[in-house]
Design a protein that fits this description.
By secondary structure, the protein is an alpha+beta fold. The protein is 21% helix and 30% strand. The protein has a single domain (12-163), classed as Peptide Deformylase, CATH 3.90.45. The chain is built from three helices and eight strands, in the order αβββββββααβ. The strands form two sheets. It has a five-stranded antiparallel β-sheet with strand order 1-2-3-6-7. It has a three-stranded antiparallel β-sheet with strand order 4-5-8. Strand 6 and strand 7 (121-127) form a beta hairpin. The longest helix is centred in the first third of the chain and has 16 residues, at 26-41. It binds nickel (II) ion.
């Protein structure tokens, strides 16, 4: 495994739509392993492949750092939201936009479908942090950042919010 460099806001790659993974080969498995390591190192909740410079529809999520959420660790290949309902506004942050936070309105509950690393389709349903993370990471795969959706964005120095 290896740490990958996180691409920061301003880099055009973050605005591009990522391509579906056609074949889960060694490169994709290494990418997933590296993304886990990079997520851990940066103490994040989620990471999408474009954030490490790879335009593929791959993301990882780990909600375990939030004490109020269930500990869910998932790898998502070619994920898509298949159901959503409700509305919830919550603060978001992003490893590609260090130090910034902003309130974003997302569905309160979402159901996503994706492939795991064995190429099997699975569904995952989440509320709260997990719903937010699923939407945030899938947005990354479509070239959308939370600041594109936030009603306002502020510096983390201005409050006690923790980085996600
Ligand atoms: Ni992000």
């Amino acid at each position: 495994m290896a740490l990958r460099k996180i691409v920061l806001e301003g880099d055009e790659i973050l605005k591009k739509k990522a391509r579906d993974v056609a074949e889960i080969n060694e490169r994709i498995l290494t990418l997933l392993d590296d993304m886990w390591e990079t997520l851990e190192e940066n103490n994040g909740v989620g990471l999408a492949a474009p954030q490490v410079g790879v335009l593929r529809r791959v993301a990882v999520i780990d909600t375990g750092k939030d004490e109020e959420s269930d500990d869910v660790r998932i790898e998502l290949i070619n994920p898509r939201i298949v159901e959503s309902d409700g509305e919830a506004e919550a603060d978001e942050a992003c490893l590609s936009i260090p130090g910034m936070v902003g309130a974003v309105t997302r569905p309160a509950r979402v159901k996503a479908e994706a492939l795991n690393r064995n190429g099997e389709t699975f569904t995952i349903e989440g509320e709260g942090l997990l719903a937010k993370a699923l939407c945030h990471e899938i947005d990354h795969l479509d070239g959308i950042l939370f600041v594109d959706r936030a009603s306002s964005v502020r510096s983390m120095d201005d409050d006690d919010e923790e980085e996600e």
